[in-house]
Amino acid sequence: MAGNEAQVVGTELERVMPNVPVLFDYDDTFYSTIEKRPVEVISSRDMRIPLKIRPGGKFGYYDPDGGSLGRGNMPTYDKAIINSVNFREAIEMTAKTIWSTDDKRKAVINAFRDTLATTMKEFRRNVDSQCMGDGTGVLGTITTVSTAGGVDTYTFTTDGFRARLMRFGQDINVYNSTLTVNRTLGGETNITFYDLANNTIKVTPAVAGATGGDLIVTSGLYATPPIGLLGVKYHDSNASTGTWLGLDRSLNPEIRANRVNANSSALTLPLPRLAINKIGDRVGMDTKRKVTAWTHPAQRQAYEELGFNVIRIDKQAKEEGLDLYFNDSMQIAGAPLKTSYSWDRTRIDFIDTDVWGRAELHPAGFYANPQDGQKVFEVRSGDGGVSTAWVFYVVASFNLFMNNPAAASYIDALAVPSGY
Question: Which pTM does this prediction carry?
Answer without folding.
Answer: 0.93
